[in-house]
Design goal:
The complex is a heterodimer of chains A (339) and B (219). Chain A has two domains: 2-85 and 161-244, Rossmann fold (3-Layer(aba) Sandwich); 263-335, ACT domain (Alpha-Beta Plaits, 2-Layer Sandwich). Chain A has eleven helices and 14 strands. Chain A has helices at 46-53, 76-83, 101-111, 116-129, 145-157, 175-192, 203-209, 227-232, 237-244, 277-285, 315-327, and strands at 2-15, 18-31, 35-39, 61-66, 69-70, 86-90, 163-167, 195-200, 212-217, 220-226, 263-268, 290-299, 302-310, 331-335. The chains are: A alpha/beta (339), B mainly alpha (219).
Chain lengths: 339, 219
């Protein structure tokens, strides 16, 4: 079943005298039980997009369907009721700083008019789920970032949502804490069957937990599909940028290349990394190839290697090399422009 | 040093000053707090932006606040007489004090509410909170420390203004200081009233700041 369907969604912001097209004609379908990654550089419009999923931002045009409800057709009151089914967590956690952990988790329950005692009981259960039972009386300021995000997750789960939207939920956390939060999200997805949408600029987050991904650039979805497919054969330049350069915090991943040099990308799947293909190829053709980039990545739990080669001059030898590599069962793709 | 008559007069002065200050503060908050909330809610980045409502109250606040208190005191004499029946004495002083303080409080409240993290408000919205919920369960709760600090400062100001009303027979310690120190050259009585004013002011400030500090869970 489709949990979230976005049809021809556009969002334009009117900023003094000029219009900014934040989102342009977005179409997406997110199925029940997906962990759907939406990845893009900062400013690509991904945060605006996720806010359209619960109508914190109202689209300028287009439709957002949650289950069988068209959000645009709901009254303010119906929309508020629907929002309790669509929980959200944030980069900066957004906890009530003047309330303790337990009261923070009770907050959404109290909004839905759950009695005080019942809310407390439910909140305690949720704190157990996120492993913070001993912090019930603590205030957010006394917690670490990871603990705060756990409180936020507990709070998000309070009303038994069908969907959990995560807006850069791990971007303010260190790698270890990020891993533990992602683990928790995966657990929630598996055990409670909650559909999760993950907004991030970190490639590693997507490859860690998502099963599907959409790549968004300048307000447009340039590519989407299964994580494995998109990551092993990125078609758009934005996807390549994100996947090849990896996480933006890692620098120096690319090599300056000679213009006009013919380049190919080779993708190694798990069974093709046994044979030393490149070495054998060099021995066979007696020519040098320029290794511009080589990398192994964990994509959806499978080790994927890829390499970008600069080929020697000469059309004939180039074709021979490509044919040779094809024979070895490798996936080859021409690379144009900057690597 | 002083005879019992003077001491009685000073005690009555303390009583009148506290009476004017506290009653004015409370009444001014009854008006100023909702006004401040209204300003925040209707401002351009508020929950329900409304240029007209915001514009009208914004201008009113600025006009009233730009009139010096002493002049407001005199301007309001007919109104004061209409409300309390006379234009002198401590009860009469409460009227101009409230008129002067309410818009000031509205501004203080607006700025306190501005300090509330927009992210927290967004989070509340994402949970299905109504605007009422957001104002009363998020904004006022999250801003409470700042609101109490603001109230303390406001009380201090009203306290100071109440002394100023002494120039027109407003009652309280300020009245005594003006009558004895200024008209009769009895410097000793004036100094004592000033010392009393300082002590009272310190007490009010310390109590307010202490409450604000104890309620703050951010650190």
């Amino acid at each position: 079943m489709s949990e979230i369907v976005v049809k021809n969604l556009s969002k334009t912001f009117d900023q003094s005298e000029q219009k900014v097209d934040a989102l342009k004609n977005i179409n997406l379908t997110i199925e029940t039980g997906d962990i759907y990654g939406i990845i893009g550089m900062s400013g690509a419009g991904k945060s605006t997009l996720v806010r359209c999923f619960n109508f914190l931002e109202k689209p300028t045009s287009g439709e957002v369907w949650i289950g069988d409800k068209n959000l645009g057709a709901l009254s303010e009151k119906e929309l508020r009721a629907e929002r309790s089914e669509i929980a959200m967590i944030f980069q900066s956690f957004n906890l009530l700083m003047q309330k303790n952990v337990l009261d923070n988790v009770c907050f959404p329950l109290r909004l839905q008019k759950v009695s005080k005692n019942e809310a407390k009981k439910r909140a305690k259960e949720l704190l157990e789920v996120v492993g913070l039972t001993d912090k019930a009386k603590a205030y957010p300021s006394q917690l670490s970032g990871g603990q705060r995000q756990r409180v936020a997750i507990a709070r998000a789960l309070a009303n038994n949502p069908r969907i959990l939207l995560c807006d850069e939920a791990t971007s303010a956390l260190d790698p270890q804490t990020t891993a533990s939060i992602l683990e928790l999200l995966r657990d929630i997805n598996k055990k409670l069957g909650i559909t999760i949408v993950v907004i991030t600029h970190q490639m590693s987050v997507v490859s860690e937990i998502c099963n599907k991904v959409a790549i968004i650039e300048k307000g447009e979805v340039v590519e989407n599909g299964l994580v494995e497919d998109v990551f092993s054969h990125p078609k758009s330049s934005a996807a390549r940028e994100l996947i090849l350069r990896g996480d933006s915090e890692k620098t120096g991943g690319t090599v300056e290349t000679l213009n006009g040099e013919r380049k190919i990308r080779i993708v190694f799947s798990e069974n093709s990394s046994f044979e030393p293909v490149i070495a054998n190829m060099v021995l066979k053709f007696q020519v040098a190839v320029n290794i511009l980039r080589a990398d192994t990545k964990n994509v959806g739990g499978v080790a994927k290697g890829e390499m970008i080669l600069g080929l020697p001059d000469g059309k004939e030898i180039q074709e021979d090399i490509i044919a040779y590599l094809h024979e070895r069962g490798l996936e080859i793709e021409e690379v144009t422009g900057d690597v | 040093m002083f005879d019992s008559q003077v001491i009685m007069m000073l005690l009555e002065g303390i009583r009148d000053t506290l009476y004017m200050t506290l009653v004015s503060t409370i009444v001014a908050y009854v008006l100023g707090l909702p006004l401040g909330i209204l300003l925040k809610v209707t401002s351009s980045d508020g929950l329900k932006p409304n240029k007209i409502v915001y514009g009208v109250f914004d201008v009113i606040c600025n006009i009233v606040r730009s009139i010096p208190f002493l002049i407001l005191l005199i301007l309001l004499i007919p109104f004061t007489r209409f409300v309390v029946g006379k234009s002198y004495g401590s009860t009469a002083t409460i009227v101009p004090l409230v008129v002067c303080a309410a818009p000031y409080i509205a501004r203080m409240v607006e700025s306190s509410l501005n300090e509330v993290d927009p992210g927290v408000i967004e989070a509340a919205k994402s949970m299905g909170a109504s605007n009422m919920d957001i104002v009363f369960k998020v904004m006022l709760v999250e801003a409470r420390t700042s609101l109490i600090v603001g109230a303390t400062i406001t009380t201090g100001n009203i306290f100071g203004y109440s002394a100023m009303s002494g120039t027109v027979g407003g009652g309280g310690l300020g009245d005594i200081a003006v009558r004895y120190g200024y008209y009769r050259y009895q410097t000793d009585i004036m100094i004592v009233t000033v010392i009393l004013l300082i002590i009272l002011f310190q007490i009010i400030q310390n109590i307010g700041m202490k409450i604000a500090g104890n309620l703050d869970k951010r650190k």
